[in-house]
Queue: 4 jobs
Job 1
Amino acid sequence: MSKFKQQFLSGPYLIWIIGFILLPMAMIIYYAFTGSDGTPTLQYIAAIADETNRKALGLSLWLGVICTVICLVLAYPLAMILSNMHIKNQSFVVFIFMLPMWMNFMLRILAWKLLLSKNGVINSVLTGMGLSRINIINTPAAVVLGMVYDFFPFMLLPIYNALTRIREDWIEAAADLGAGKITIFFKIILPLSLSGIISGIVMVFVPSLTSFAISQVLGGGHVLLIGNVIEQDFMQGMQWNAGSGLSFVLMIFVIASMALVNSFDKEGEGTVIC
Amino acid sequence: MSKHLIDFNNISKSYGDNLVLDELNLYIRENEFLTLLGPSGCGKTTTLRLLGGFERPDQGQILFDGRDITNLPANERKLNTVFQKYSLFPHMTIAENIAFGLKISKKSKDYIKDKIKYALKLVNLEGFEDRSVDSLSGGQQQRIAIARAIVNEPKVLLLDEPLGALDLKLRQNMQYELIRLKEELGITFVYVTHDQEEALTMSDTIVVMNQGYIQQIGTPEDIYNEPQNAFVADFIGHSNILDGTMIKDELVEILGVRIPCVDKGFGNNKPVDVVIRPEDVELVDPAEGYMEGDVTSLIFKGVHYELDVMSNGYEWLVHTTKYVPVGTHVGIKVIPFNIQIMHKPESSDEKAVEIDE
């Protein structure tokens, strides 16, 4: 195929990237640094220091960290069990865990709202058994639950992939050289699955940091994340400049956190950015 | 020779319905280079893995220096393994790989540093400390795997087809390296291979295995010159294996011709297997041979020619340095000393072996 034709084939993707990613990004940056009258200003960037915004960003970071840690703690042992199962059709295992992702994530969050609500399914069952109700709907706990439920596969899959790439004979070689089970885990399995852990952390932390839909549904307006503030600026207040300013700051936080996480990945595998 | 270091007593092992080892008995002496030789699936690798501690036998007992190690986990055994796939840790440098076992046994930093240097010198890879595993060729990785095993000063080094993935020239060089290492270290080597030439070159003792049974144990010379059954004879180099009848002591009949030999004690008119090595078949004038035949194929092999000679309904394999063109009418002669007589297999196990071949 000629060079021209090959370039031609990349055309649709280039149009997509320029029209729907680069252009909007440029617009956001433009709006972030200009006032409503078009004059350059830093006031919308500085708006992050306002108490509401600062608290929302702080809560977003905090819930993002909690969600990521919970996902990691749940996913790592599960991935180890799955990778040790030696099932002939390993893709079936992956399929099982991808299955929930076939359903729209908003629907799944709405389902959780019904389950968790004051007179919802879970509380009906609990009271039926004579136990006390749990009231976590409209709290940060419910938001974290929703995030973990939604983003868990993004933690599980990269770790599972990394673990299945660890060869059995490396483990045997380590045992042969005198390593017990604990040493094998910390010296062989953990370092060799690090790239998967890093990918998982990035893929869970970034969406949970920027999430606004989950907090809206399961937080019921009581849990204000930075994503919600931005959404309100754009959709309710029509304050594009203020929304863009906060979006820009959030973008900096996302890139910084990814760079921080990637700095632990010595091998350079599984890098998402930087 | 010296005392037993390892004893396998009545070891059996099966995977599902597949019996891999059946009541294996074997001892390995101190400072011996012992090779387990056989085709794939003969149980040689399983035997090694049982010794390394990666598998547990279904029954039987393994003794190491008189102590029962049958159920001792791999990391507590005083032996080290060189794996077929090298199995170097990809996230560590060469030095870290070699230091792995030493760090676990909590040796001092200076000791570890000296040991790495010594081991790299021993395998002719000085200065490779900080290289990554990926930057090494297969042969170099293999030598690092050996270095990583021997720095722990094991009493026994287990080698699982360590040269299998290397090309011919490198393999031959590594064979000499291994012999040299064995002499320098003065430890026991247990070596697994399916390559008969490798086994003959390096071993003090060869254990020929097939289908979970030991076929013969002996020195390379014993195994080559005096194979105990047709399987061993066939596996150790291509041979002419013929059905024969022992007429009486020192006289055997093959292909309808009575030929003098040196074997005794088989009884009179007993069916036997007769092995004649291709290099022991002499091609002479038709009138001078025991039987006459025609050359049907000729291949140049470098050191010698490989010929097929059709005679009395049997196709003889002949190695000779003389050029004998296809179609030549020749006589076949073998001196009595070079005729190897073997009992026909008696047990059903041995028969199964023969059918399989």
Job 2
Amino acid sequence: MLERLETIEAEGTAAVNGAGSAAELENLRVKFLGRKAELTGILRGIADLEPAERGPVGGAANKVRKGLEALVESRIESLAGAELEASLASDRIDVTLPGSPVRAVGHLHPITRTRRLIEDVMIGLGYQVMEGPEVEHDFYNFTALNHPADHPARMLQDTFYIESGAGAPEEAGPRDVLLRTHTSPMQVRAMETTPPPLFMIVPGKTYRRDSDATHSPMFHQVEGLAVAEGITLADLKGTLLAMLREIFGPDREIRMRPHFFPFTEPSVEFDVSCFKCRGSGKVEGEDRCNLCKGIGWIELGGAGMVDPNVFGFVREAGYDPDLVTGFAFGFGIERIAMLRHGVGDLRLFFDNDVRLLEQFS
Amino acid sequence: MRVPYGWMAEYCDPGLDPDVLAEKLAMTGTEVERVVVSGPPSADNFVIGLVTAVEEHPDADRLRVCTVDDGEGERTIVCGAPNVAAGQTVVVALPGAVMPGGMKIKKAKLRGVPSEGMICSESELGLGDGKDGIMVLEDGLAAPGTPAADVVPISEHVLELEVTPNRTDCFGIYGVAREAHAITGAALAPAPWEGESVEAGGEIDSLVSVEVENHDLCPRFTARAFTDLKIAPSPLWLRARLIASGQRPINNVVDITNYVMWLTGQPMHAFDLDLVPSGALSIRSAKPGEKVATLDGVEREVSTDTVLVCDQNGPTSIAGVMGGAVSEVSETTTSVLMEAATWNGPNILRTSRDLNLRSEASSRFEKQLHPDLAERAQIVATALMVELCGATVASGMVDVAAPLSESGPIRLRNGRVERILGLAIDTDSQTEALGMLGFGVEADGDDLLVTVPADRFYDVTREIDLVEEVGRVNDLDKRLPATLPSGSGRVGGLSRQQVLQRRAEDSMREAGFDEIVGWSFTDPGETERLRLATPDSRADAVRLSNPLSEDQSVMRTTLLGSLLGAAGRNRSRGAGRIALFESGRVYLPAGGFGHGPLGGDFPGDQRPPVNEPQHLAVLASGTIDPATWDNDPAAADFFQIKGVLERLALGLGTEVEVVAGEQPFLHPGRSGTVVANGEEIGWIGQIHPSVATAWDLEETVAFEIRLAELLKASPLGEETYGDFTSFPPVDRELALVIANSVEAASVLAAAKEAGGDLLVSVTVFDVYRGDQVGPEEKSLALRMRFRADDRTLSDEEVDPIWQKIIGAAEALGGKVRG
């Protein structure tokens, strides 16, 4: 009996090791380990043996069964792995073909990006962002900004007027409603509704009757206004310097040239030192720096101390020129975008050619 | 304002290179647009020559062969001018000289005769019109070989100032000289009118009489009379100064008026006294329909606001703007009535604007000149009339003047300069600065009492104006510290609406759309191309009364035109992918302002004149997804753009609904109304093919919403936590066969209504049309989620709700599919 078991073990082991597929192994499992298999019969017949034989035969038979079972399992596993590898190996793609592109991400307009940059810098300096109407009353655009009627200062800005009747209020006179020529009207609107201290900027569209490579009838400005006790022209300089360094780099300097604006006194124009030639006006290999035209400074905008006459229009809202002082400034967003990104023609911004837009991700 | 450097230097010579002076002027408040050279770029190689002989050219009728003594010897110069003659003293450009315009003089052969230089005409030197040929100087004016610049003002540097409208003083050379004095410290010569005056009355009263109807419009009118004068060209020095100043020399009398204006800032006008009957002038407002023939040869109808200078027969000049032809000074004039008047600035501004006629005179008068300037001008002009025209002066002056409203000195409080500028300037420096600028300064305790000169009368009226004057000439740019406003506990930031606006724009960018910035104005025809018609308020655009062109004459009422325009332009330029969005304003008749600034509700006591809400519009034309080597995506369709809309809403943490709704510019079967929070906020759909064609586009889809109303629906930043772990949801699906005509939205709405609070979401996840359902039917597959916040829902609890939902669906004609 024991010999027979040895034979079964040897035959079974040889057969399982020789099997080449999972199906063959399944057949062998039935043949050697199934209900009708000889080994199964031996195990079932143990009880009929002599008591002295039962122990050794039962132990040996069980050992053979477990051994074969384990062998079949391990062979099945290894054959399955090999079959998977074989099938994967035959499922081959050309990895050199192009990948499937995802939908492109779009682009914010350079004016939006520049506007946000300026907003973020000024927010960091403690300013709120406010917005005001583009179609505006003469009062806010001119009168309350110390431009009396028929004053030559109004000639500085070529103004678009709105026809009364269609669209505009019927009662308005021919020059009462206009497209704002600057973002400054919001100075008075903001002061009317917010008592000092007031620190705000106003980005937005503005309009002047002018059109060439550096003038567009529609353009964007940012206005700044700071009113509190003890504000000085030096504070204006420091604020502009901090802002311009954020925008154009930490080494920039600022220059303020006295000027005239009806709604500020004193008034200045401000320049930033040229970031291309570092203010020297000279660039290697060129006659002169073409960005600042050799001057070393780039003109940016206008500013000044809020004129007491402007406060006169909002005195009741808490703006007494003997108690508070303030500064205001304004400059063009396109100008900053043109300088930062090297765009030569202002009109390109409103042409919206995707070949331009796509350059500003 | 063109300022010839040499002319200014007669009164104040800072001894600086003109470019350096220009820089100093710019840094103290007077912008210099540029420094140019009048005449040749350099005076080098221009010398005085003496023509010693003139012969005919052997081979050219019009050329002469001249022998010229240039001081070093004789040279041959071929000259084409008919007036050249032996014995003339002339200006010679030697080889190497550079003419205005850049031409360089070289030795040359002209028709075979060598020529070593050029005899110059006035125009070639920038000194006149030169129509008479070469410029012939006075005999013996200078020896041959003298540098021409020593005797003739060639190569004059001219500063082109951009004078701000408050600085009427800098519209005169002397005012600029005073400015140069104040900023450089160089000595200032007395003004040419200094110490002189003209008394009213005298001989003049028998020659001239003046009546002024309204002193508000004519605060002062002065007149002097000159007789026995001779009209002639002005001398070279005067013509040179006028030309360098940008004015055309005419004759001695007219040139004197222009010269005096340029010097003093006060315009003058010369009448031919013999053409003013009885020498009687009256100054009055124009009558309705009145016409005046001005010096430029145009007859102009003037409004009743216009002030006229009239003689007994009618208007002879438009006050402050332009003289009239009736009494124009001509070659036969022998007597002159010289006017120097003060007009009302705003009135002159209005007149010149209404007539569309600006002159050097009106551009000065409109800024309001002080009456004292009139007398100054008469003093300077009188001397020149005698000197240059040989005129006899009638003694005295007609002077019709309103009493001047006196204003006392202005107090400049101690410490005020520092308080405004943030820079301390001591009292002595303040006094010195104001004194050099022509102000009278007196100490009063710690304060200064400052008297304003006539030139600055309307400009400097308050303490703050003095602060500016003191600051600007005290090297402000260099000395001013850069400080930041001291802290006041303020916090900067964006409003919630601004934060959400950025998020909405960013989400469209991330969805693959390029942002455009469209023109706010458009052409009136756009309405028609968009098929908009009254009573649609979008057909009633706000119009500009003075547009640059018809193409930009109305304000847009929708962003769609801007997007279609950009799409069409990009398509025609061959752009492959057109996926655009704009976040911008539209302009609608007033009323119905929306929520916050983005809704057109801005701060301020007065409402804005029109309603200008921010819209967000998105457009896709053609395929916007990339093609791959194994797949060609279809053109963007309604559902693709709707997906973008849904993503926009989702990005804001909210939802929008689209219900059927038409727009004139949309495909009637593929258009909808966008609803958020139960409020209609915009439209979505495929652009009507005939509209798309108008912009040369094919299949195009778009939506446009009122941004403020979408943002209002967003809970972002204000969300509250909902427990999602303690009690699991119950998910169920329902297949419903229903007529095609029933919109999915109404099924969802009915389900929500029936589902009550426990139904937390319901979505369509499949739509089937085909053999399994009837020809006019579809099968909608709905997925629903039920959940309670405080317990696990049992089937027993969900079942009755489920039945209610099925009942509601059946009420719409639906059948549950088996």
Job 3
Amino acid sequence: MKTLSLRNLGKTYFDPYAGAHVTAVHDVSLDVQQGEFVSVVGPSGCGKTTILNMIAGFIPHSKGEILLDGTPVNGPGPERGVVFQSFALFPWKTVLDNVGFGPKMRGVPKAERDRIARDYLALAGLSHAANRYPNELSGGMQQRVGVVRALANEPAVLLMDEPFAAVDAQTRMTLQEELTRIWQDRKPTVLFITHDVGEAVFLANRVVVLSKGRILDEVAVDLPRPRVWDQLVDDDEFKRLSAQVLQMVRAA
Amino acid sequence: MNLLLQMWGGYARMTRRWPALAAVIPFIPVVALWTIVAEAGLFPRAFFPGPADVVRSFVTLTYKGILPDYLQDSLIRLFVGASVGMALGVPLGILIGTSRWAHRICWPVLLFFQAIGDIAWLPILLIWFGFGLTTMTFVIVYTVLFPVVLNTVLGVESVPRDLGRAALCLGASRARVLWEVTLPGALPNIITGLRNGLGYGWRALIAVEMIVGTSGIGFMMFDARRAGSTVEIVLGMIILGLLWYVVDAWILAPLERATGERWGLVTS
């Protein structure tokens, strides 16, 4: 069982301009079970990206523990895949080579990693774009590549940092629907950071509300899958959950 | 007015069909003006040769084998100097670009030595190494080094931070990140640095050949001064311009465009 555990996680850093220590994250404890989809939602400045960066190992944490399957994590590693808001595709590599990058780092031979990459590209409906370069793709397509690039490495947990914030509203809805479909298909463990309440509820099994570096509360989401926007916009349970989470976020 | 537009249209169509023409046509008025001034006899012929004299001199010197030999000497010196300059400059630039400490320590020193122009080193180099290849190579390497280092640093620093992070969380080691992300990300800037460096290096080489050389285009021009042969001097000047045009417009500029534009680095 691969579970991600945060134990009293905290981040304090020295702000040289303010001349003082600033605490961005206080005492956050959270367990994410294998195959679970957890959304973390909160206003900007609540520390959600800081938490993700600590889990990914991009920045050190100052307090507490980050455990993956009971083992503390240190620095970035392939068992924690990240999908970036900025997409972060390698512009000099084709889509195929971007998706095959993780396997390449594991030493998988060229033919085998191309097969893996094509398999995942098919999952995102991107087979036709395999030999194109990222800058030839639309934003929505680039982020589809970003998602399957992280998945192709089969991480124990997938960390997503506001991945759909940089695409237009229509594309965003499509990407959200595709993500729920892919999640049902492959059942990855996902920690999804967002400031969009509707997005958080739509995607997750569980929504965690964050405020000023602390977990305020959490809400279980039991909506049936597959989830489609056309059905959910008028769904009473979806509306009730969204209103409940929105109220917490606004009160935060 | 209409006629001008038509001429412009004709020019645009013609240069699109034969792009090489676009490089040649702008020189027609220059050569024409030169011919007129030379033929008008404003200056004595010995001081101000015309195009025909220069072409004649070109044919003679090529026939004797002097010009090809000198040209080869100059180009080999430039090539050796540029290679060494790149071999030193790219790693140094990557070190300074990736390490904050290396940046703090090296940057002021780098700017200090950049300010001491290549030619300013000549007096002491002549004492150390004498009139020879070492002195010339030193000056070329010195000239090429700074643009390459400075542009490499710029390139490394312009690689988005998320790209390195993405590689790390896909399982790349720090060394792999350097090879797979930092180097290709900085490549367009490295080529810009090489392009600038070669431009400066080419000019520095000619200057050094005039003072130090026993062969080369610069030497040919300075030697011609002793014989009072303005034709050879002008010929040397034209060769310098032509050669650089060919190297820059046909090799370096396309290379720079190919890396930068295809990857669309600006948007990512």
Job 4
Amino acid sequence: MGELRLMKGNEAIAEAAIRSGADGYFGYPITPQSEVIEHLAAQKPEERTGMTLLQAESEIAAINMVYGAAGCGKKVMTSSSSPGISLKQEGITYIAGAELPCLILNVVRGGPGLGTIQPSQSDYFQSVKGGGHGDYHLIVLAPSSVQEMYDFVELGFDLAFKYRNPTMILSDGAIGQMMEKVEIGEQKPRLTEEQIKEKYPWATTGKTKDREKNVITSLELEPEKMEQFNRKLIEKYRKIEENEVRYEEIQCEDAEYLMVAYGTSARICQKSVQIARNEGLKVGLLRPITLFPFPRKRINELADQVKGMLSVEMSSGQMVEDVRLAVNGKVPVEYYGRMGGIVPSTEEALKDLKQKIIGGK
Amino acid sequence: MNEEIIIAGFGGQGVLSLGKILCYAGIVQGKEVTWMPSYGPEMRGGTANVTVIISDERISSPILSKFDTAIILNQQSMDKFEKDVKPGGHLIYDGNGITRHPERTDINIYRVDAAAEAARMETNKTFNMIVLGGFLKVKPIVELQNAVEGLKKSLPERYQHLVPVNEKAIYRGTKIIKKISKARAEA
């Protein structure tokens, strides 16, 4: 077993970035995720591994630094919270369009606008349906513990490089700010320039005589070629949906009623399930770990087993739409949530399940 | 074992670090731990609180509305959290500055006058460790030596010389905590 530490979610992300052998972090502070850059600054990654740490002049600058470095085959990331992530959207769609790997962390706070600094999940649509313009998807990972914050940095980078696609870790203020036990992994070495050239032949590492020049761009003025590229992207997303769906089932084996929740909401529902089981109610929880790709196949299968589902979210009801699409009318699917930085309680989520799903139907 | 605790008081009393040390002690003893602070504008207003969960099992919700134990260190927190102790649970408070003492009869009430005791010790910064000692006397969910280990782990290098006086404070807390009233089963 690795070293055990007590860390905030935000600190775990920062430590994992250094230990995963990342080449750079570019960011701009914003509550509730400023501990990411604070921890990095305190750790002096330039001394530990030679990793670049840069506080940019704005979120927009930071994401474009990520774009540039990713184009060179570097393992780089940025992080922000909701309003800052909105600023980054132009850069994110360019990175998706240029098919570059990178990691983006969103520690979500309540919106719209500047909103609040308390935890929220109201950026679900923005994260899984695009966010910026154009037909594209991010790979979206939803951690529900500090350990997962740590683990998903490496997983996120691995998926990003495997598919040459940006990965987003969609977290929230609660997971960013809370401390839990984290098992720390070994320090991985950063890739050398030679290794980057060998592993990533697409990267702009400097043209040599023995190869064509590499061009990183999202611009294609010929519509036929652009459509061809769109089809290629769709094919990639289909592969991701085939191979990378991740979820956790909690007491689903014999469940008659299902809660569906991710991140902090999933932790809350886990307790609702415990209470329900103590009352003799057969309630289970499906926790999507990847929000794109969404575990729709499994949810559709569970719709044959359960009498109804409740999507519990810290939003006005966003993921519930994907749950309904997955269920395709087989059983009733309802939503319960709180907004604006309010976290739903275990008791009210269960009460809502009883009223809307277990009760009448 | 699954212990759900709220620690609440003024910012600067060491509420958050008390929770952190308790969590580290839990880790030393092989437990699962969660530390969830109130964060944001509330902190700047003066009150601070943290939810700590120590458990043998994987921890579910980090955000709770009822607690096994409330450690209450000022009047505002008494007003806010006395009602949130589970029936049969424990309320531990420091009498310093308390104008309205706890009134519930369905919970166990303890008093640890840590502020007064800290003033008598070499340094009054040991206040929160006296409280921790008191709590661990009532709820021995982690061993005292593991609490000291937790203290060592959570103090940065430059404060390690403060370990002995804080260790003394933890033991002092176990001695001075007093039981005020026992939970009565409601008729």
